[in-house]
Fold these 2 entries.
Entry 1:
Amino acid sequence: MTSWLATPAGRYLLDWEQQHLDQAVADVFGFHALQLGLPELDALRSNRMPHRWVASDERAAPIVTDEALPRAALALQLDYDALPFDSASLDLVVLPHTLELAQDPHQTLREVERVLRPEGRVVVVGFNPASLWGLRQRLGRLRLGVGLARRQPLFLPPSGEFLGYRRLRDWLRLLSFEVEAGRFGCYRLPVASERWLQRCAWMDEQGERWWPVFGAAYFVVAVKRVRGMRLVGLAREQRQRAKAGAVVATHKRREREEETA
């Protein structure tokens, strides 16, 4: 992933993600924010929380802080499947292509739900398999699978598995998240040349208008919701019986008073 991000297509993707992440996290308030994965992207630079961390998987190389990217953050190495944070202790978690590269993406998302406070936010960025970039990647894997074009590298990073936008929304709903915003982007053709990418710049504007859900990348903002408690079952029945008993006792008392009179 690191070497691919240095290509023209990778820089184009990073620019789009950085721009929209800056807008997504700027107005998220709290005290603790975490970015899981992709240290090449400074996802928390526009956020004003006092405690911010950038973490990579423990299997990856250590994060090297670049002076050209000033960030008020502490670099960590940890296991995505078992985050070393207390439950309900974070206000914001950003996952830039993290679920695609995680060993167990669903477990990673469950851990994010555990460490987030109620009303905390998670921002997920990923490749869209229903796009021209995703189509080229699938065709490249197919050619490799049948023994063709072995010397030709894949267009996108070979590691990881794409997670569809609708599938991600279903996972979030199952974990009591409410999707607050979503957006697609990067509509240019899947070409490796900087020259051809620039020639396709007109497709960004037209893509948002005519084929908005077929962008090469997407990001989703979701809020952790905790529902209120309600009386159900036995507790509710006992409450109703207590009220009924009080009404019957009052009725009998009135009958006795009338007979006496």
Entry 2:
Amino acid sequence: MPARSIPGNAATYPGEAAAQGRLSTRAPFHLEATVRVLQRRPANPVEVWERERYQRVVATGDDLALVEVENHGTIDSPDVRFFVRGGDPSTATIAGIERTLRKVLGLELDPEPLQHVVEAERRLRATALALRGMRPPRFADLFEAFANVIPFQQLSLDAGIAIVGRLVERFGRYLDQGGRRFRAFPTSQAIAEARLDALRRCGLSAVKAESLRHVARAIESGELSERGISSMTTSDALRILDELPGIGPWSASLVLLRGLRRLDVFPPGDVGALRGLSGLMELRPGASLRRTLASFGDRRGYLYFFALGGGLLAKGLIHAAPPSTSARPR
């Protein structure tokens, strides 16, 4: 077993890959676009994209592992592989890591229905072709979803990312590898046990700090669980989440969309998503998108990811997919 040391919240490993595996998925698959939409901004300290690979620290019981995902194939012929760096993971640990990656990256989804629905909208088709193979990602667990929604309430993406970064630095464990430090997302237990003033020093308002800690404690007690929410209809889940302190319709919708991949939900009044979508459709400022959202039916939530992806594409943070190498019926 490779030598390692764990001082407090840190784990230090040598740099070799301890295990690897393949992640099967249907074509097309655009790994970069999927990860960029997951991270929202390059400053995200947990979801890392660099050198054409996705990196993330994953908790494996009491240990941490740095996981890297690469596509050794193409968008139209994906050969997605993952590498676990550090430790000596068991077969069960590798299987758990694979499940997490498949969940986060949406590898079980059939991309064709989503691709068809955005290509069918004439004004979105050019962007749809550039983002071809982008999957709607989801956060690794329910607490991560809440912790990636509450800090963003009534703030810009950049301001929200900065607050989450401070939460990660203050309450998350970390792993040192190859001379670099990689951070894991804080657990619900860490936030449930945190003092409110410590949470506020990360940039949260008093209301947001109380809301985040309440959710963390509800998850730790079992009062709130991913399995329980997943078993509910969308309308019932929205109602239950909306009743939580500090969680309104926008937050409840975004938790379902980004935390459970409920694509029949579009977060109401999401200014950034609506502005981005209006820009992609070249609509005049203030024009209503109600009819467009309704036309996408139970896939309207994909428009949230699509608008975010379109903005990142325009900033050069996503490379456009090349023309398809396989003919598909229109």
